[in-house]
């Protein structure tokens, strides 16, 4: 084994060349730019450059063919602020987020509590609750489109109802929300499960000795210990839900839904850019969307920092 | 090496290495498995949007073409109709990876930037394969000509029809002595017919399916009846909106009344075909439903949408072949694309079985075509077409249809009042008229391409 | 805890979990049974769970039309390439940010963190025009490379490398080992669990990715499974039995992977999740 040989000889060498060793140690951690370089090249090409390009395009009337764009100043932004379809789309994404986030958080927590407290077959419950997450979004969308189908679909049949899920504007978004819950709750469920398992047992045992019942243990130990992970789950869900696209378009055959009721923001940007060929305008609304997403992310960081400071005090 | 696990680990590492290397190699080749496997000299990539009966007819025609031209490999791909198809076609052309041959609705051609996203046909080459301008309706042929070049080769005309079940109408006493539906010339006539038909309809079925929640169908029906009333959209210079809100209100109230009087059920809006097959007396659908209903062995007929406002007019569009833009278009593949398009256009008998009226007029006069039923019952629709205005934002599932379709639906379903909806339609038309075509920065009034 | 008692509360919880699991699994069952019906039986009204005539026609038709096998290969190629590039690049970058010094590190780290907020969903249109300029529309590279710069994975590995004791590397440096050798022979083996988590998640994300491949590929020959299933139609119209069979084929590989690597995946979620708290 070469490594043990090196260890044996190392001290002797170190004594004779202590200076150069220190130098080598220092050098070892310096000029790390080469480690970061490959990532930075890809990151610059496919993240930073598109962002800058998006900002530039948003001030032009560029079209899909990629040539002949001219500068139009703030026209695109002015149009966007006045565009009822953009506000509608933003409203739909926000409405979806508002419905999905609380449902998924609560459901994920309950499922995790269930799986955590059952002693037998943990792997089985984990598999059952997580499996839908492993499907591609389009497969999940197709599957539920089929389940919601009038006449031939199982949902109306099982519950004995005749709800026009995907053809009525008051139900279509709800159908997408139900699909999303089934499809994505597994990820948050695993996060909660991991957090539950990382709570030290001795806390519960101490509480038991103090005579706390199950309810008290949950309110005074489990829930406080899950605060951080809940914050993470909510933040991740808000960011993901605002960007909803896949399942919504698949379930409604790439259309805007009954009376435009399910056209999401991402869908609208892509329609403007690729269907109406207005790349300049689509870039402008993308930038508006980016600012919104960044604001949500920064708000979370700010909340987190405040809380840490509060905890430190 | 003493540990037995090491061999397995080495094996796994080797297999992993081969997978990774193989993947990178495959990605570097870059053409996909299907193209690698193709052995023909010339491979034509052809995109269409035909599914259902159209899809199987197209496949039959392609198979016949393949049998006649064994040296040409046709790779046909069917993309989802409507937005997804046009989006993909535009993006492929913009990214310079366009297929060799594509299908488009004729109404979409002016807005699809001929010259940028489309390449012109080589008319001489087409003639060599048997396609000549003289064999087409001149107006139809001219719709594909922009700036003197042919960009779209018409394949057919397709129209919206009123399908009716002869068995049900017979019971209701609504069939004439010729075995066809009694003539309808006013809205009163029409609702009287529906009233009688409803009595003869089985329980659980609606009287008529007219796609009440579908923004495309509702828009097409609107165009048809608005044209029957003699309504117009823009003035000749395309500077002013001439949309008549009073006429629009009449049409919207007419469409809405099918629901309020209980003839159409919004809950069954997406399953009209199934309802018709199960015995619903009426369905308003495109002629592409003919193979579906004929295949189900129904006793049915089909007329153009009834002239309830006096004049005959029914919504019509056309499928056409286009050459999506390739910067290096030419050579054997391009010739093969011409050959394929010409073959399909001139062998349109099979296509007519799908309910479409062939654009290649020699087909219409063949005895085989005249025998087709119910095609012969509605072939007259060809002479009174209601089409969308000829502007860059029009055409099947174009911006116009996307913007206005949902507004029409909101009236039909009762979420908005007809007069409010008519005003919204008018203001939307004004917005669109003022809008610049993103491809050339010109409005409809300035637009050379649309003229 | 080798023998677990069936206390009343355990029985209730198990029954509850069974019921919930059935609800979660029933859509899979519905897909499977639909795929084993004939197309006409699949659309019968009212619907019924089990096929009256069991038939594999949807599955054979799926393989005969050919597209699905192409897409499967494409999915595999793209996911393998993305996963290997991401592993290499983000391990290097995570280590670089966590352990080495270079000018502008703080600023660069901030920029990378800002990258967490950018995705093809947010900036798809400009990203497409960028890739269009590079001439990579409808190519494998156009699909692969933009998926290879995930700031999140760099962040996860950065967090991990920060927690590794410095002494191991220092000892090796004193022995005269070069930086790259230290990285590949000492640091990478230590990071194996984290790398496994990153690798598995990248693979899942890439296999299931729809939005970006949807934007950048139009040629059906090059499409991946999720994209092909959603955008390319069967020429005979929507055939639900085939659609369900195709969906199962797209979804099953990952479910099988999950069954085999459940421990690692759960640990991976825990690891990444807890890192993000």
UniProtKB/TrEMBL annotation, chain A:
It is a multi-pass membrane protein. It comes from the Bacteria. SUPFAM superfamilies: MetI-like. Keywords: Cell membrane, Membrane, Transmembrane, Transmembrane helix, Transport. It holds the Pfam family BPD_transp_1. The chain crosses the membrane at residues 33-52, 94-115, 127-147, 171-194, 225-245, 279-303. InterPro entries: ABC_transporter_permease (IPR051393), MetI-like (IPR000515), MetI-like_sf (IPR035906). Coiled coil: none annotated. Residues 90-300 form the ABC transmembrane type-1 domain. It is found in: Cell membrane. Its main location: membrane. The keyword Transport applies. Belongs to the binding-protein-dependent transport system permease family. This is Sugar ABC transporter permease. It comes from Streptomyces lanatus.
From TrEMBL, chain B:
It comes from the Bacteria. This is Extracellular solute-binding protein. It comes from Streptomyces lanatus. Gene3D superfamilies: Periplasmic binding protein-like II. The lineage of its organism: Bacteria, Bacillati, Actinomycetota, Actinomycetes, Kitasatosporales.
TrEMBL record, chain C:
It is found in: Cell membrane. It is a multi-pass membrane protein. Its main location: membrane. SUPFAM superfamilies: MetI-like. Keywords: Cell membrane, Membrane, Transmembrane, Transmembrane helix, Transport. The keyword Cell membrane applies. Gene3D superfamilies: MetI-like. The chain crosses the membrane at residues 12-33, 71-95, 107-128, 140-161, 182-205, 240-261. It holds the Pfam family BPD_transp_1. This is Carbohydrate ABC transporter permease. It comes from Streptomyces lanatus. The lineage of its organism: Bacteria, Bacillati, Actinomycetota, Actinomycetes, Kitasatosporales.
